[in-house]
Amino acid sequence: METRKNNLLVGIIFIILGSSSYGMLSTFVKLAYKENFTTPEVTTAQFAWGVLILSLFTLFQKNKGAKVQSHDVRGLMIAGIPMALTSILYYLTVRYIDASVGVVLLMQSVWMGVIVEAIQSRRLPGVEKIAAVILILFGTLLATRMIGATNMNLDIRGLILGMMTAMCFSWTLYSTSRVANHLNPITRSRYMLYGGSIVVAIFTLVSQIAPYYMNIHLVSEGFIFNRPFDVNIFKYYGLIVAIFGTVIPPIMLNKGFPIVGVGLGSILASIDLPVAMTISFLFLGEFISLTQWIGVGIILSAIVLLNYRLFAVKENSSLSGP
Fold this sequence. Notes:
By secondary structure, this protein is mostly helical. The protein is built from twelve helices and no strands.
């Protein structure tokens, strides 16, 4: 019994560390923007450092786990596509809106996941899930200041990009939960980064390299950064974003979820929302009203409502063990 409790505590710590790291990302990206770095520069540095660090981890790893098959590599690299799109869209989002609002939009992936589940199972969601979705949407109205908002703090471009980010994050969660789960977490994360790096390279090429160095404009002007690529991003912010965005979270979450289960894990993972808002308040000076905190509380309550039965099953199975 004591061993089970200790293992559960370790799993809880893993998930809190991983989710808290995700929560800090938007603030670090905002700080990089204040230093005049661009979205392509941030994402390129993030994935380049991520690949390097995880490759070194693999090199010195004693227990490499199951042998990687070609279909595993292919599946994980494909799963890395939505992961890269999530990063790109999320960082574009916080160009236009506060970091504290951006993370609230990212959390819309929760109710999007409910819809995906309903489509897959071809069954309408239960009353509890419908109630949770309504709570999330209502909490979002409060937390994003849509009620009584001004044009200054709610740029429509940020809202659209934020919702696209949530869709890609839902796609990421769906993919990563089903691809090569038998492999070591570091190995899985590394191959996903390989696939994501291709997407990031294409984004950087069409949005900054081609427009500036080749005078080739393949995307709309709103997504073009017509200036030389600043390699100084690799010295500081690129490494920080890589550690908190592509190194710590996937490793910690891949280690934590098998221990604590989906129900408790999902509840614990939602800590990235209050962490993101607190960090943006402390480091960016973003104003967060009482109404916004109430909205966050409602969203967190909805996540608990969606997962409490799974948590109860996990708890009962732990207590009934030998």
